[in-house]
Specification:
By secondary structure, the chain is α/β, with parallel strands linked by helices. It has 10 helices and 17 strands. 35% of the residues lie in helices and 19% in strands. It is elongated, with a radius of gyration of 20 Å. 56% of the residues are buried.
């Protein structure tokens, strides 16, 4: 399930080392589902039919839907890619084969335009750059095609809904976990791309939480842009100057897990949890590889970013938008909350649980359902 799915477009200028965050993956809470709409309960993230609602045309929800991925070099996005056709079928969406933008924001705009030129009636896009994606969103709006953003909220532009986990909570959960494990000393956060709202949210939340709640910890930072090679080289340099590091926060396990473990092993610093000298490590994503690392005692925890729910509610919301439906802020019937962002965009913030050795074998975690 974590292999690259067939039929995904390959584009020039592939940057195989850059694995987009969001894999990090990644929180946006998913809003009201069909039953909630039928009841039209505002307390359930209610919706209403409008002819121009959320960019839709008040149609019947039929037509081709384009699905654009940020990259396929991360196990998280590979899993999301595998979920897309399954969730499209279950939600009654006629989705085209996914398109891979290969970590290139400019290519993503081209991909959006290409899909629009093919006459799609809806788009589900996982933005690479929160600001740059606006150009593609503007093109879609001019053609009257609704868009649902997955994993990353755009800074501007029109979307029917953002399906995302609460990335501020990612950073705070990582902070609280490490703060409980490491009482004093140096901890590192390997950051994502700060051109992405995900990277900014996680970085600031972690930094602010440590400063407020765990003042005996000193945060060292590695800006790694969701690139595994960058993470490895900068972590190696940092460890040479700071061999006494006690904790690491990886903002995207799909990108940073392997290089981090390899770097620690090469320096003789990869100690099993509970052993003397163990460096406490918490991650983001919830991929099977992280779960295996938790079981082996190589890392201690991760925040599970819901790849399955990203695909499910991406399809749910685009179908609703194509029917011209709109949504309101409020709790949903699938354990999430729709919130209004400062720029006016609605975001369904999906739950993202902390996973440790105590619950790593929970069969409800999506990372335990893929092979």
């Amino acid at each position: 399930m974590t292999g690259t799915t067939k039929g995904t477009k390959s584009t020039k200028g592939t940057k195989s080392s850059r694995a987009a965050t969001r894999s990090g993956g990644r929180t946006v809470r998913a809003a009201a589902v069909a039953g909630c709409i039928a009841l039209a309960l505002s307390a359930c993230g209610s919706t209403k039919d409008t002819a121009a609602g959320s960019g839709g045309s008040g149609g019947d929800g039929t037509g081709k839907v384009g699905v654009i991925l940020p990259l396929l070099t991360s196990p998280f996005w590979q899993s999301y890619n595998d979920y897309v056709p399954k969730m499209a079928k279950s939600e009654g969406v006629d989705a085209l084969k996914t398109v891979n933008s290969n970590s290139d924001p400019s290519q993503q705009i081209t991909d959006i335009n290409n899909q629009l030129n093919q006459g799609v009636k809806g788009l589900v896009v996982a933005p690479l750059d929160s600001a740059a994606v606006a150009a593609g969103l503007d093109q879609a709006e001019r053609k009257g095609v609704p868009v649902v953003a997955v994993d990353v909220a755009p800074e501007k532009g029109k979307v029917a809904m953002v399906v995302r986990a609460n990335n501020v909570a990612y950073g705070e959960k990582a902070c609280d976990y490490l703060g409980g494990q490491v009482k004093s000393g140096k901890v590192v956060q390997i950051m994502g791309d700060l051109a992405s709202v995900n990277g900014r949210d996680r970085s600031k939340a972690f930094r602010d939480c440590v400063k407020k709640k765990y003042p005996k910890l000193k945060v060292l930072e590695i800006p790694a842009k969701w690139e595994s090679d960058t993470a490895a080289s900068k972590l190696d340099t940092l460890l040479n100057a700071n061999p006494d590091i006690k904790g690491i926060y990886m903002q995207a396990g799909g990108v940073y897990l392997a290089p981090t473990l390899q770097t620690l092993k090469a320096k003789g610093l990869l100690k099993k949890a509970g052993a003397a000298g163990h460096i406490s490590i918490v991650s983001n994503d919830g991929i099977p590889q992280e779960f295996d690392a938790i079981r082996k005692g190589q890392i201690d925890a991760t925040v599970s970013q819901p790849a399955d729910s990203y695909a499910k509610y991406g399809m749910y919301y685009i179908k609703a938008a194509m029917k011209g439906k709109t949504f309101k802020p409020g709790p949903t019937d699938h354990d999430s909350t729709i919130v209004k962002l400062p720029n006016g965009i609605l975001e369904d913030q999906l739950p993202a649980p902390l996973v440790t050795k105590e619950n790593v074998d929970d069969p409800k975690l999506w990372g335990n359902t893929v092979k």
